[in-house]
């Protein structure tokens, strides 16, 4: 993790969504104004 984007960087939010999907999780893409709390990502974790 560094201050500015560099060539070859992986978007960690995309990576988290991909890993959830690959492990049977449900991933929803929504418009930015629909994300609760004015953040970039919202998650519900259930076991």
Brief digest:
The chain is mainly α. Helices cover 23% and strands 0% of the residues.
Structural class label: mainly alpha
**Radius of gyration from the CA trace?**
13 Å
Tally of separate helices: 1
How far is it from the N-terminal to the C-terminal residue, by CA? Answer: 29 Å
- Give the helices and strands as they follow along the chain: H
Total tally of structural domains: 1
| Low-confidence runs | none
The biggest sheet amounts to: none
Number of strands: 0
Task: Give the overall shape.
Answer: globular
Keywords:
globular; mainly alpha; 47 residues; 1 helix
Model description:
This protein has one domain. It is globular and about 35 Å long. It has one helix spanning 12-22. The mean pLDDT is 88. It starts with 11 loop residues before the first helix and ends in a 25-residue tail after the last helix. It has 1 helix and no strands. With 47 residues, the protein is mainly α.
Give the SSE layout.
Elements: H1 12-22
